[in-house]
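A quick aside before the break. I want you to see a complete sequence-to-structure record at least once, exactly as it would be stored in a machine-readable document. Don't worry about memorizing anything.
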Amino acid sequence: MNPLEAIVVVKACIMDQNRILIVHRTGTYPKWECPGGKVDMNETLTQALKREVFEETGLKIEVDELMYATVMNVADKGKSYLILNYAARAESTTVVLSDEHDRAAWVSEEEFHEKIPEDILTAFRDHRVFERLLNR
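That is the input. The structure line, written in tokens, reads:
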């Protein structure tokens, strides 16, 4: 992979009554995360985020502001990911999971901090994501 290449990933910070939606990924790298995924060729960022969230959770969303962007280098995969995290609103809170995930939860900020990997927590803290989401 060319060191200047990156895979673009979009994620949704979906809030409902001061709770954020997280999903638990299965497979080689199981972890809790916000829903979202890779942007396909010829897709806008908004189209990709709506598609990914619907595929993973069955939720239809409206995409709001960009909360933050970060780069994650995964040495054992030899890849770099440009991750764009957006605030989003869902029409419903009823989640229907795809095969990519085995659990979903609407969690408080405290529960989020207990479940989410440290690299994501650091980005959320650095960019005051919860504070900004709760003050919308």
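Two observations worth writing down. The beta strands are 7-16, 19-25, 31-33, 36-38, 61-74, 79-90, 101-107. The chain has one domain: 7-134. We'll return to this after the break.
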